Amino acid sequence: MKRHSAQTRVGRLALFAGLAAVGLFGSLTAEEPATEPEAPVPAAIIPVSGIIDETLVASVSRRADEAAAAGNRIVIFHITSDGGYLDAGLDLSRALERLAREGVRTIAYVDSRAYSAAAIAAVSCQEIVMSPEASLGACTPYAAVPLAGPQPLEPEVRAKLEGAIIERMQSLAEKHGYPPAILKAMVKMSTTVIDIENKKTHEHRTIEEEDLFQYGTEWEKRDVVVPPDEVLTVGSEQAKRYGLARHIIGRLDDLYDLYPIRGRIAVYPVTWSETLVAWLNNMWLKALLVLVGLLGLYVEMNTPGFGVPGTIGLVAFGILFLASFLAGQPDWLPLLLFVAGLAMLLVELFVTPGFGILGGGGILLILGALVLALPSFEGLPERDFEYTELFEAIGVMGLVLAAFGLCAFFLARFLPHVPVLGRVVLAPSGVSDGSSHAAAAPQEARVGDVGRAVTKLHPAGKARFADRLLDVIAEGDFLDADRPIRVVEVRGNRIVVRPSEPHGPEEGTPA
């Protein structure tokens, strides 16, 4: 009997425990229902690499819009960049934020580095995923000086730019749940970030040291996370510990295990045309185009007729001014200044005698147009960093002019002696004087031959030597038409002449 009672009590106890467990389980499930897995959706990945400039921003924006229009609800931005221009970085940040507002889940994947403007782009995404070797941060602004590298800004300029970046970063921290103090420490060197702990809950938070008094006595300071004498750059483990990175993965395919991705991730790479446009908008390549254009026109001015060198020069200048149009940011001012300067120079050379105000003004307009065509901003500079780019362009232009002077010296000295290059010109159009035979006469002349200018020699033009109509170049001053001339130098098809006495030897014969 006792045994039965004992068993009964044990059974009742077990039943009570079971019912209690069921009740507890039921209460837990009622309060915290199990989260259903997200339905898989299409995903796309967009590589973001190289200098963050307006050309890259336009490319990323276009590809992101294409990915969203194709139905991809997750867009992963694979960022590998040392940064770039501040204005472009802020434009890219706004483009990525706009994509999130349209219902697309944005993820930044950093497998190597994302500094400066690239770091701003990364925190503009809703989540950040990093590889174990990746690093992120260093958003402090600086001036890029040719041949000298990054240079510190004036304190007033630096404070102004830092304020704009911090304002943007704080807004992103609030929207995406990133630690504001950590993001601020990536921008401003004087930011001291500490780790604090709640004495009761043992919760840890990362805040600015100056904000500690706002948390009350239940929070106490533990460690200094970022000292005030450095700009923060974090590795993947630090980024995850501070609440900046969501995941650390060893390879890109691990994203399939972390996110509800359906099927294969679609890749939206940079097209070959966008790569070409990016190259054409690089300041140093533009500088090379300027040098080629100047040399082409110089060689053309020193050879009769219009030929290959002049064509190459005009094509180089055409590419220079069209580069901004190809990038989707048309800049009319340099092109208009160049055309106006070229027109003034041509009027001075072929219409007015001598060389004066028109010629000098034309040269200044051309040089100004070339300087304005080198940077990536549109029109005249307005912002501080645009003035920095303008000064950089002036320095680069100085190097181009020095290289042009050196190349021109060697061309003048050695080009006429090169058998092939000394004759690379298109057939001249000819000057009609009623004699087709004269226009087709062979290009033959000897030193000492005398003749008469048929056209103005500014400095190139045509002259008649007996029954021969030849292309010549005046030495020294420009010469008017019908002026007696004498051949003083013959190199290949280059015939150099100077004025002759009106009543010298018979034209067409040596003196």
Number of helices: 15
Q: Please give the alpha-carbon distance between the first and last residues.
A: 154 Å
Rounded average pLDDT: 80
Number of strands: 18
Uncertain spans, ≥5 residues at pLDDT below 50? Answer: 1-34, 422-442, 503-511
Radius of gyration: 37 Å
Coarse structural class: alpha/beta
Gross morphology is elongated
Largest sheet: 8 strands, mixed
- Bin the helical content: 40-55%
Strand content: 15-25%
Describe, in plain words, how this protein is organized in 3D.
This protein is of the alpha/beta class. Among the domains are: 43-148 and 234-270, 2-enoyl-CoA Hydratase, Chain A, domain 1 (Alpha-Beta Complex), CATH 3.90.226; 275-423, no CATH class; 436-499, Nucleic acid-binding proteins (OB fold (Dihydrolipoamide Acetyltransferase, E2P)), CATH 2.40.50.140. The chain contains 15 helices and 18 strands. The chain has helices at residues 2-31, 54-69, 86-101, 117-123, 155-176, 180-185, 236-241, 255-258, 272-280, 283-301, 308-326, 332-350, 357-373, 384-414, 436-439; strands at 43-49, 74-81, 105-115, 127-130, 135-137, 143-145, 149-151, 193-198, 204-208, 219-226, 233-235, 247-248, 266-267, 450-453, 460-465, 468-474, 484-491, 494-499. The strands form four sheets. Strands 1, 2, 3, 4, 5, 11, 12 and 13 form an eight-stranded mixed sheet that branches. β1, α2 and β2 (74-81) form a beta-alpha-beta unit. It is elongated, with a radius of gyration of 37 Å.
